[in-house]
Amino acid sequence: MIQFTPQAAALGMQVSRIEPARVWGLVPYREELIGDPETGVIAGGVITTFLDTLCGTAAVAAMEQPTTVATIDLRIDYMRPATPQRDVLAQAHCYKLGRSVAFVRATAYDETPNNPIAHVVAAFMVNSNGGRKFGANLRKKK
Hints:
By secondary structure, the protein is of the alpha+beta class. The protein has helices at 6-11, 44-61; strands at 14-19, 22-27, 34-36, 41-42, 69-78, 88-97, 101-109, 118-126. It has a single domain (6-126), classed as Thiol Ester Dehydrase, Chain A, CATH 3.10.129.10.
């Protein structure tokens, strides 16, 4: 999923481990990702993108038959700035997979999950197209 998402690839996101419904990953520290030049802290948008993408990956990892997902809702709580010069790590867990919605939690950190940078709770729409072609649900032209 990350290799097919241009923004994820541009940020250098990597998946370091994957299990059913769980994913671990990292964004390597790079100067072009800094949001505040005075402190050297990675931009919050990088962390949001990283967690959103990792959560979507965890949702797909929870499925017996993987399909696409789309973010419905994402709530992020920033708890502290990322440590300058350190990679940002994260873990995501899809704790509930329904027919049409997946629910996921994730934590970003740079040392240990016990000292988080940010925490996310998200919901993803699961592609439930029933084999229909893209656009089959659109109104027909008269």
